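Fold sample X.
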Amino acid sequence: MADSDADAARGGPGEAGEQVGALSYEQARDELASVVKRLETGGLTLEQSLELWERGERLAAVCERLLDGARARLSAVTAERSSEADPDAPF
């Protein structure tokens, strides 16, 4: 495998030190989709596949954490609006 392919398996040149936790949800989701596609394509060594799988796991965890945070924010806003509602209002 060429060096550029090996770099791509690890996340690309210059990205090895990038913390996946710093990514936005959309960035993590898109990169996770790329990881899955690359794993499905095959042609990697076992070590490269494992590294890519581990990166995918980290990306999935980032997505889950960000979604959980968004759900919590929505719940807080919904609860706040419910407590502020006029109990005598017709709707």
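Fold sample Y, listed below.
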Amino acid sequence: MKRFIIERKLPGAGKMTTEELQAISKTSVAVISILGKPYTWIQSFVTEDKIYCIHEAENENDIREHSKCANFPVNTIEEIKAVIDPTTGDRLQ
């Protein structure tokens, strides 16, 4: 499966309550369970007015289907081509 980062513009996201974030989480998990496709939600990052989500799916259309069924906004979807971190420069080639 491919890994994607999804940008969701959601004004006030950073002020959402724990209960509101839990509701979003439950909705996402419920939709994944009924998609009937290989699909994994990895993690999401909440900023002031956006939520950035990392999902694994076979293609961008599956991401859009999940978002539509969950009634989540989608502003951009980008396939993640590589992941680097502070240790990347130390790895042997």
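Sample Y note: The CA atoms of residues 41 and 55 lie 4 Å apart.
Also: Strands lie at 2-9, 39-46, 50-57, 76-79.
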